[in-house]
Amino acid sequence: MVDRADKKSRRFYALLLLLVASGVVINLWQRAGEQNAPRRALKEFPASVGNWRQIGTDYRFDAETERVLRADDYLSRNYTGDGGRVANLYVGYYATQRNGATYHSPLNCLPGTGWTMSEPGKITIRPADGSAPFEANRYIVEQGSNRQLLVYWYQGRGRAVASEYWGKIYTVLDSISRRRSDGAMVRVMIPLLKGQTEQSALEGAVNLASEISPLLPGYVPN
Predict the structure, then answer these.
(1) Distance of CA 96 to the CA centre of its chain
(2) Domain ranges across the chain
(3) Contact of 166 with 183, CB cutoff 8 Å
(4) Beta carbons within 10 angstroms of residue 141's beta carbon
(5) Do 137 and 151 contact (CB within 8 A), yes or no?
(6) Does 133 or 64 have the greater pLDDT score?
(7) Residue 26, SS3 per DSSP
(8) What region does 68 belong to: left with phi over 0, alpha with psi -120 to 50, or beta?
(9) Is the dihedral of CA 37, 166, 98, 19 positive or negative?
(10) What is the biggest distance separating any 2 CA atoms in the chain, rounded to whole angstroms?
(11) Of the four listed, 26, 78, 195, 197, which is most buried by Cβ atoms within 10 Å?
């Protein structure tokens, strides 16, 4: 009976010590605040990327969209590639996700604006500089007669991942271990026009993604 009571007492004080230590660590972590990672503004992203060239000016959302988006910086720009193909690049960057502002998954925001999503899948992006390949999501999205191929992934703190679930887990881990929760959602959309196959559009989206990915760390820090 005495040994059992002693074991319970030791477990109690060990648990109490752990809770106190955790409280101290969390308090110090909160006081330390977020680590700022140096970066360039997304408006400085190159107008020429591989065989792709910017067309038109960068698109700015209306005030209501920006209020919902809550991005600290974003880029929405059209590029044209070989054969006149046009692609839209969007990068939404968040300097911190501690305050509740976080990247918006296309799975939530596109259906909410009238788009339907179909043919989900995963594809491999192989960066043009030969760095490690990564997975991205691919979908066909439609709104009325507007049909497009969508490729997107989550990037930040040296990782590029397709899974929003793993993106959130890495954000929590890095927030604790590196005092950083910054990150971005990167999206490429290519219209599916008459006479063009889905495979052709996918190849175009993957090519643009492979060209921009080595450049992104300057704007979405590793």
Answers:
(1) 13
(2) 1-32, 42-218
(3) no
(4) 19
(5) yes
(6) 133
(7) helix
(8) alpha
(9) negative
(10) 83
(11) 78
Q: Over 70: is that where the pLDDT of 77 sits?
A: yes
Domain 42-218 in CATH 3.40.1000? The answer is yes
Q: One-letter amino acid identity for 222?
A: N
Query: How many angstroms from the chain centroid is the CA of residue 34?
Result: 19
Cβ neighbours, 10 Å, residue 28: 9
Please state, in angstroms and rounded to a whole number, the distance separating the CA atoms of residues 163 and 143: 24
Compute φ and ψ for 157, nearest 5 degrees.
55, 35
CA distance 186 to 77: 12
Query: For residue range 14-24, what is the model confidence (pLDDT) as tens digits?
Result: 666 655 654 55
Q: How far apart are CA 74 and CA 92, in angstroms?
A: 4
Question: pLDDT tens for residues 109-127?
Answer: 787 777 888 899 999 999 9
Picking from 134, 149, 129, 132, the residue whose alpha carbon sits closest to that of residue 190 is 149
Whether pTM > 0.85 for this model: the answer is no
d(CA 192, CA 204): 11
In this prediction, residue 5 carries a pLDDT of: 60
Query: Could you tell me the CA-to-CA distances from 157 to 75, 110, 168, 177, 181 in Å, in that order?
Result: 19, 26, 12, 12, 8
